């Protein structure tokens, strides 16, 4: 079985490099190449590749906009960003990019990324979108895992199921859980990676929420919503864009093991 790849890159020489490296792994097959974002989106609609290489600085439609458009159509798409700038890393990981490679990059790094992607698609490796495997078995049913959280003076052990939401308060990241709150020096991106996929969802630039703990979603004006949570009177925020993203992904049935 082969997994299809689309390359969206305006530099023909870089396209050749990406195609050569991708096809070194016999499980990957490049089915389309595009030199601008508009062409790339049209090819995606036609070919529906599993993996898309995205250059940020594409003509006509930039790589971030392209990735968001593709993600809206097919959230299961795997993205590898190739760029000369480190400025768009957060935007790339909004669509759960597998990797973000800043030119010049080592070809071995690219090979490792593609090998991992092929392993994920083949089912022989856990999905990178579930975050790094930093949990330990809780000895209960499948999915009952413990989450290790570094605080200033100790390491706390939390059950993922008991985490309500994560937010920034001043210079600290705060994890609210059913028994209280804990502060950590980790940023939201780091915790999002550790927490992994569903039911954890980045509802807003300042919040990661356990959707299983949400009881109501209430309009709050100016394109935002307040989330009424179980076990707390605090109300995390959700943007209108994130609300639509959540609706799309859940409607597609990706509410079990896919990061949203």
From TrEMBL:
The keyword Transit peptide does not apply. Transmembrane segments: none annotated. May play the central regulatory role in sporulation. It may be an element of the effector pathway responsible for the activation of sporulation genes in response to nutritional stress. Spo0A may act in concert with spo0H (a sigma factor) to control the expression of some genes that are critical to the sporulation process. This is Stage 0 sporulation protein A homolog. One of its GO terms (molecular function) is DNA binding. Keywords: Phosphoprotein. InterPro entries: CheY-like_superfamily, LytTR_DNA-bd_dom, Sig_transdc_resp-reg_receiver, ST_Response_Regulator. The keyword Phosphoprotein applies. Pfam families: LytTR, Response_reg. Gene3D superfamilies: 3.40.50.2300, LytTr DNA-binding domain (2.40.50.1020). GO terms for biological process: phosphorelay signal transduction system. Residues 4-118 form the Response regulatory domain.
């Amino acid at each position: 079985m082969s997994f299809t790849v689309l390359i969206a890159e305006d530099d023909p020489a870089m396209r050749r490099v990406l195609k050569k490296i991708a096809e070194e792994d016999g499980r990957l097959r490049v089915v389309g190449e595009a030199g601008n974002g508009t062409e790339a989106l049209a090819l995606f609609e036609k070919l529906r590749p599993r993996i898309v290489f995205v250059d940020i600085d594409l003509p006509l439609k930039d790589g971030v906009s392209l990735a968001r458009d593709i993600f809206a159509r097919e959230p299961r798409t795997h993205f590898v960003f190739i760029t000369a700038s480190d400025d768009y890393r957060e935007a790339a990981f909004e669509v759960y990019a597998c990797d973000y490679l800043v030119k010049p990059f080592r070809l071995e790094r690219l090979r490792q990324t593609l090998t991992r992607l092929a392993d994920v698609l083949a089912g022989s490796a856990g999905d990178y979108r579930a975050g790094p495997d930093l949990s330990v078995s809780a000895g209960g049913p499948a999915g009952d895992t413990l989450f290790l959280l570094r605080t200033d003076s100790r390491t706390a052990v939390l059950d993922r199921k008991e985490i309500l939401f994560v937010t920034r308060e001043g210079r600290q990241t705060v994890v609210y859980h059913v028994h209280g709150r804990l502060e950590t020096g980790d940023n939201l991106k780091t915790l999002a990676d550790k927490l992994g996929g569903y039911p954890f969802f980045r509802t807003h630039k300042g919040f990661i929420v356990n959707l299983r703990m949400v009881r109501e979603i209430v309009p709050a004006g100016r394109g935002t919503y307040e989330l009424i949570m179980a076990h707390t009177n605090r109300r995390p925020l959700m943007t209108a864009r994130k609300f639509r993203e959540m609706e799309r992904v859940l409607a597609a049935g990706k509410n079990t093991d896919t990061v949203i």
